[in-house]
Design brief:
The structure holds 2 protein chains of 2 kinds. Chain A contains 4 helices and 7 strands. By secondary structure, chain A is an alpha+beta fold. Classes of the chains: A alpha+beta, B alpha+beta.
């Protein structure tokens, strides 16, 4: 998966502790959202009250979890998230990547296309450069 | 007014990011942006691919709603349609801001335990 939004934080925790933060329901509730069930599926209620449905599609215990999630009220706004842990001395780095997911029937721009290797920072830069031409500012 | 092709309905940030996944396509888009408008013939030579490949890239960009075509003689003339790009930038800003808030909560949670 290629990430579009990319964040890395250094956590004052060992990789094992950090893994609990990502997977233990009580820990998850404290920062991401309260795990719940929506129609028999996994879900999260975020602190702002948004309910998201979530399908975990990648699990590398202790290291990486990937899921597709979307607001229950807006299934078209699905995106894919990966959370990756990397040991960093006595701390642990958490990297978050989130990419919008092509909707079913969304034409040729499918998730398969998104498999092409590309540098998300280049695209980000590209978008910002084009925004800088004023093209976006004029019409936004 | 020259006849316009019907505007492609932007398909959301996923389509924009997928269309921009190809470096040559990004170069084609940049060239259109720099020129204001361009035909495939005008862009051939600016990018290191054949005119036929440029046409394909322009069509892919049009499908993502990033450019719109107007027929000019025997060619299509393309211009930038920046709304989907603005939407994609807004998506990145919004999703990024949400993660900043979440990760701030997470960071505060871990630093409290020491």
């Amino acid at each position: 998966m290629n990430d579009v939004v990319h964040r890395t934080v250094s956590l004052d925790a060992s990789p094992a502790e950090a893994w609990l933060l990502l997977t233990d329901p009580t820990e998850v509730a404290a920062w991401l959202g309260t795990p719940t069930e929506v129609g028999g599926q996994l879900g999260l209620v975020e602190p702002d009250g948004t309910t998201r449905r979530l399908i975990i599609d990648e699990l590398d215990p202790g290291r990486r979890v990937g899921f597709t999630w979307w607001p229950a009220a807006d299934p078209e706004a699905a995106s894919h998230v990966t959370l990756t842990l990397t040991a960093d001395g006595d701390r642990t780095s958490l990297t978050v990547e989130e990419t919008p997911v092509a909707r079913a029937g969304g034409g040729r721009c499918s998730i398969a296309d998104a498999g092409v290797a590309w540098d998300e920072r280049l695209v980000d830069l590209e978008l910002r450069c084009l925004a800088g031409t004023g093209a976006i500012l004029v019409t936004a | 007014m020259p006849s316009s092709s019907p505007p492609e309905r932007p398909r959301g940030p996923d389509a924009v990011f997928a269309a921009l996944a190809d470096p040559t396509r990004r170069q084609v888009l940049r060239s259109v942006a720099e020129r204001g408008t361009a035909t495939a013939t005008e862009l051939t030579g600016q990018v290191a691919v054949s005119r036929q490949a440029v046409v394909k890239h322009l069509q892919a960009l049009a499908e993502a709603g990033l450019v719109a075509a107007e027929r000019q003689g025997r060619e299509q003339r393309y211009r930038l349609t920046p709304e989907p790009m603005a939407d994609a930038v807004a998506w990145m800003a919004d999703v990024g801001a949400r993660w900043d808030v979440r990760l701030d909560r997470l960071r505060r949670r871990t630093s409290r335990r020491t």
